[in-house]
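Researcher: Last one for today. Full complex below.
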Amino acid sequence: MAGEPLLETVAVSRTYGSRSRAVHALSRVSLRLWEGERLGVVGESGSGKSTLARILVALERPDQGEVRFQGRSVLSGRRQDLVSLRKGVQIIFQDPFGSLDPRLRVGQSVAEPLRALRVPGDHGRRVQQLLEAVGLPTGSERLYPHQLSGGQRQRVAIARALAPEPTALIADEAVSALDVSVRAQVLNLIADLVDRLGLSLIFISHDMAVIRHVCTRVLVLYRGEVVEEGPVDQIFEAPQHPYTAALIRSVPVLGGRIQDV
Amino acid sequence: MTLLRVSGLSVDTEGLPVLRGVDFEVSAGERVGLIGESGSGKTVAALTLMGLQPEGFAVQGSVEFEGRQLVGLSDREFSAIRGARMAMVFQEPMTALDPLMRVGQQIIDAVRAHRRVSSSESRRRMLELMARVGFPSPEEQSRRFPHQLSGGQRQRVVIAIALACDPALILADEPTTALDVTVQAQVLALLQRLVAEEGSALLLISHDLAVVSSVCQRVLVMYGGTLVEAATTDEILKAPRHPYTAALLQTSAGIGARSRLAAGRLPTIPGSVPSLGGFPEGCVFRGRCPREQARCREVPPLVGDGHRFACWFPLEPGAAPIAGTFVGR
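Model: Here's the assembly. Have a good evening.
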């Protein structure tokens, strides 16, 4: 892993609220995503994982610390650096109903980032290719979000994320709202696309089992701090931090026993 | 002893079938899991058992509880059973609790709803219940309002309310789905311990086969408003007969077991769950099933003794399509 990370945060902190009732959402979190890597971020509510996701795509600014994409600060205020982040790093959220405009047809939603980022080329054709790549049937571009199932909407969100040809994809609880039988389809799709397009991935989830399936390295967030970090199999086999151990023990397994943690 | 006997239970709304002839029984003290994805009808089944089905839902068939027929009871007759002999724990505790009332008072109200007890006696019972569901200082915590508690603590209050009148049956509909993983494990452990201590039966409704199989002795699998398989947890895990059950198991096991490098692509079920009214004629799993044949245009009956399944071309018993692929800990 020579050279510089594709995307990194250096000791970012974010506090909400005023002095007396301040909530430290993130405390000095450093994260490095290397080219072609699949990094997991696991945490429960209050861990700061969503704040981290928003900071990584510059939807939010940290109070302290640095965020770099391809070695350049995205907090510098230089428009060029922000645009390259917007093109290069795309995000998929948990609820595609919340992130897709209900008044736009699927085709328009997918074309929107192409237009906003002034990507040259035939947008109509690109949209067709993208919808095909995520396994949506022909003619889907004319439908509205409410005419699709949850799994299909998440496919649209993925197609839209891929539109500007990003180098990194961030999935924030991207499969948590899906039915069990559909979750596997979408997980396979994300993994296939990451492989085929050579993308780097940050997969954020509360679900250790899903993280283990998708990622090679994982970072455990607890109350805004990184408490453990390492190769996913190693962390699963021999967690060092008591919180990580509790998190792994809590994952219900088929035919297992409920463990009070 | 049979506590609950559901037979031929069908629910329709605007001419569309939500439940189609569901049959199952729950014995006293038994823990039964009802598993299904969205659109399976599992929540409507739970609401119908409690007489809480939405307006405009037509109920047919029979629900016998402690020997009494519940279908057709008036609201007033039902409310004498609800909360007293049968209690419910919902997914979102915030909606089950009154936001303007201290949690201790809500438990006291539940204690007094069906029984004449003195105020000092109901207060004593409230404190005892709060301690039993895991509040370390009930006296102080009973004065909190719901918003001053965490999600897990709120669900503990709901469980205390459910236990207030020693119910014979607790219906829990996705009781831990809105909770964090570590809190989920605590609440499930609590629920499992309490029903064992009280001798209550538990009907646990969930989309998560791992949760259900960890808590329950028997599993009912629903798809498209139909009960497609019913068996002991062990049989469901080791020798599922219905292709839908087998597919759900493979998917759940694939995610849980190993890294993608070791496990490869996850097994999936093609297509998605149809919306209400969109299910095929005949077998409801038609169109997504790998074993489909011409005969599947006819509705398969639920057959078998003990281990029951509704499929014309079931998996061989003991074929164990997934044996060894899931890990126990």
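Chain A has a mean pLDDT of 91. The interface with chain B takes residues 44-45, 149-152, 179-185, 187-188, 191-192, 206-210, 212-214, 216, 232-233, 246-247, 249-261 of chain A (CB under 8 Å).
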